[in-house]
Write a structure and sequence with these properties.
Strand content: 25-35%
Radius of gyration: 13 Å
Shape: globular
Number of strands: 3
Largest sheet: 3 strands, mixed
CATH topology: GMP Synthetase, Chain A, domain 3
Order of helices and strands: HEHEHEH
Helix content: 25-40%
Strand order of the largest sheet: 1-2-3
């Protein structure tokens, strides 16, 4: 259910051409963040909004779109955020 909410929020915020959410939470069972309810996720996203933005700016946009989820529901988040031109160069 958290994966679906992440997907919904990122779709609404960025209208990406590609969006994949990978839930790695099971691999971290027993980890302190997992015990507190936070999951481990990886996002692969391709969207126009990332064109010309730095890696830090891209991550900030994603954190902002996920809002309060970053405080409790998400303990760890890996991000591959690319512009469409970067995706076509095979940088995924």
């Amino acid at each position: 259910m958290t994966s679906e909410l992440i997907k919904q929020l990122l779709n609404n915020a960025f209208n990406p051409g590609l969006l994949e959410i990978i839930d790695n939470s099971a691999a971290h069972a027993g980890h302190s963040g997992a015990r507190n309810g936070g999951g481990h996720y990886h996002v692969i996203i391709v969207a126009e909004v990332f064109e010309g933005r730095s890696l830090v700016q891209r991550h900030q946009l994603i954190y902002k779109a996920l809002g309060d989820m970053m405080k409790q529901q998400i303990h760890a988040l890996g991000i591959n955020a690319l512009s469409p031109s970067e995706e076509t160069k095979g940088r995924l």
